C-alpha cells in the first residue's frame, strides 16, 4: 500500500536542498547487497525548477526500477546489459547522451568532456551516476540475433506503423533469412566481433549457389545481394543507433552483378478473350478468386491491391464508378501500399465493373492473404492450362493491361497514373478527371459474357 501511495505523489523521491532539487530513494532490501548505492540513493538534479526536476526524477526512477527488476527476476537479463541501460537513463536524466569513455575520447569535444566532469560532484554524486557520466559503463556484447531484434523493435519500428500484420511479417521474413544464414555459417557472434572474413564467408556461400563449379545455378544474384545487403544495413544501422557511426562495415563492397531481369510476357488480348474469359473456364474457381482475376484484367491493378480493397474504396454507385487504391487507415487493420505513386483512382469498365457490382464489400477471403491468393490462382491456371506459356504468371495480366492502353493510344502520363507508376516530372493537377479517364479506358474495353462473373 505504501508503494501505491508513493506512486500517486507527484513529488515522490524529491527534496530541496539549498534551492536545488535532489533525488532521494531507499534501495529495496531485496537488492541491497547487489546495488552499491545502498542503503540510500542521493543525487542532485541540479535544477530549482520543479517541472524539470520531476522529469529528471522520472528518468532516474525508471532506470532504477528496470535495474532492480532485472536483479529480482528468476531468469534475469544479462547484468551487464542492465547496468548499461541504467547508465544510459541516468545520463539522459541529467541532459547528456550516453557515450562510453572511448567514444568520448574519439569525439574530441573537450568542452563537453570538461562539462561532464564538472557535473560529477565527488562528495554528492553516487558512484553509479558518476561512472555513467564519465562513460565508464561499457556497452555489453550484443549478438547478431539480439541486434536484429533491436533493429526491428527500436531502429525501424516507426517505418511500419501503416503496415498490416501480414506486411510486417513478410518484411521481417526476408531480413530474418539473412540473419539466420549468417548465424548458421559464422555463429551468433557479438556484433563488434564480426570481421571481413565473416562477410567473405557469406559472400562465398552465395557465390557457390549463383556460379556453381558444377551444375546449374540454384539461386539468382539478386538473392545473394539481398542477403548481403540486409546484413550490411543491419550492421550500419545498429552501430549508428549506439553512436558508433564511424565503424567500418565489413559487408561494404560485396555484391554480385545482376543481368537485366527478363520481364514477364503479357497475355495476348486474344488469349484473354478467347480462353480465360471463355464461359466455363473459370467456373470451378471460387467466386472471390475469380472476381479478383477478372477485376485485374480491366484495371491493371496488382492482385494484392484488389484483394485488400475495403468496402469504402469500392465506389460503384459514384457517377463514375471506380476503385480507390490507397493506404488502409484503420488502427485495427492498417495496410500500406507499395509506393506513393501507387495511390490512385481507377474507373471501372467492362467485366471489372460487373465484378464490383457483385462484390461491393470486397474480397474478405483474401484480405491480408496475398500468398494464399497467389498460390490458388497460379495452381488453378496451371491445372487448367490457362497460361499460354510457362513464362506467364498472374502478373502477366498487368503487363497486358499496359500494352492494351499503349496500343489503344492512351496518353503516356495517364497510363502511368492508372498503373501506379511514378511520373518523371513535377506533378500538377489531379491527372485528369475520372470522367475523362473512364472515356479513355472505354477505348480498350473487352467484350464479355456476364455469366463468367
Automatic annotation (TrEMBL):
Keywords: DNA recombination. This is Integrase. It holds the Pfam family DUF6538. One of its GO terms (molecular function) is DNA binding. Residues 13-70 form the DUF6538 domain. One of its GO terms (biological process) is DNA integration. It comes from the Bacteria. InterPro entries: DNA_brk_join_enz, DUF6538, Integrase-like_cat_sf.
Amino acid at each position: 500500500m505504501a508503494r501505491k501511495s508513493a506512486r500517486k505523489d507527484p513529488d515522490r523521491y524529491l527534496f530541496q536542498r539549498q534551492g536545488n532539487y535532489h533525488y532521494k530513494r531507499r534501495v529495496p532490501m531485496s537488492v541491497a547487497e547487489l546495488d552499491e548505492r545502498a542503503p540510500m540513493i542521493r543525487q542532485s538534479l541540479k535544477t530549482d525548477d520543479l517541472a524539470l526536476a520531476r522529469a529528471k526524477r522520472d528518468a532516474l526512477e525508471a532506470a532504477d526500477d528496470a535495474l532492480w527488476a532485472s536483479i529480482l527476476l528468476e531468469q534475469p537479463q544479462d547484468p551487464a546489459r542492465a547496468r548499461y541501460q541504467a547508465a544510459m537513463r541516468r545520463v539522459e536524466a541529467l541532459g547528456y547522451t550516453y557515450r562510453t569513455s572511448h567514444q568520448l575520447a574519439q569525439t574530441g569535444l573537450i568542452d563537453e568532456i570538461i562539462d561532464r566532469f564538472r557535473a560529477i560532484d565527488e562528495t554528492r554524486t553516487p558512484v553509479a551516476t558518476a561512472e555513467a557520466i564519465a562513460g565508464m559503463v561499457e556497452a555489453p556484447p550484443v549478438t547478431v540475433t539480439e541486434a536484429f531484434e533491436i533493429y526491428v523493435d527500436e531502429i525501424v519500428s516507426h517505418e511500419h506503423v501503416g503496415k498490416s500484420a501480414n506486411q510486417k511479417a513478410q518484411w521481417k521474413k526476408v531480413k530474418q533469412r539473412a540473419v539466420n544464414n549468417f548465424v548458421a555459417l559464422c555463429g551468433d557472434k557479438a556484433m563488434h566481433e564480426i570481421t571481413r572474413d565473416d562477410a567473405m564467408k557469406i559472400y562465398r556461400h552465395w557465390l557457390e549457389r549463383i556460379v556453381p563449379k558444377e551444375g546449374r545455378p540454384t539461386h539468382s544474384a539478386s538473392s545473394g545481394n539481398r542477403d548481403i545487403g540486409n546484413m550490411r544495413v543491419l550492421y550500419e544501422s545498429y552501430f549508428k543507433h549506439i553512436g558508433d557511426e564511424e565503424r567500418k562495415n565489413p559487408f561494404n563492397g560485396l555484391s554480385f552483378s545482376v543481368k537485366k531481369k527478363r520481364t514477364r510476357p503479357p497475355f495476348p488480348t486474344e488469349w484473354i478473350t478467347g480462353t480465360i474469359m471463355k464461359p466455363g473456364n473459370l467456373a470451378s474457381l471460387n467466386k472471390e478468386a475469380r472476381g479478383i482475376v477478372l477485376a485485374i484484367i480491366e484495371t491493371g491493378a496488382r492482385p494484392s491491391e484488389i484483394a485488400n480493397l475495403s468496402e469504402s474504396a469500392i465506389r460503384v454507385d459514384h457517377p463514375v464508378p471506380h476503385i480507390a487504391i490507397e493506404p488502409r487507415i484503420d488502427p485495427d487493420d492498417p495496410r500500406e501500399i507499395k509506393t506513393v505513386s501507387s495511390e490512385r483512382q481507377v474507373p471501372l469498365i467492362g467485366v471489372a465493373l460487373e465484378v464490383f457490382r457483385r462484390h461491393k464489400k470486397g474480397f474478405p477471403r483474401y484480405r491480408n492473404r496475398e500468398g494464399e491468393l497467389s498460390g490458388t490462382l497460379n495452381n488453378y491456371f496451371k491445372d487448367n492450362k490457362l497460361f499460354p506459356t510457362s513464362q506467364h504468371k498472374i502478373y502477366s495480366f498487368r503487363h497486358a493491361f499496359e500494352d492494351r492502353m499503349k496500343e489503344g493510344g492512351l496518353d503516356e502520363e495517364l497510363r502511368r497514373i492508372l498503373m501506379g507508376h511514378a511520373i518523371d516530372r513535377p506533378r500538377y493537377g489531379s491527372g485528369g478527371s475520372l470522367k475523362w479517364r473512364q472515356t479513355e479506358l472505354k477505348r480498350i474495353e473487352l467484350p464479355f459474357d456476364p455469366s463468367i462473373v
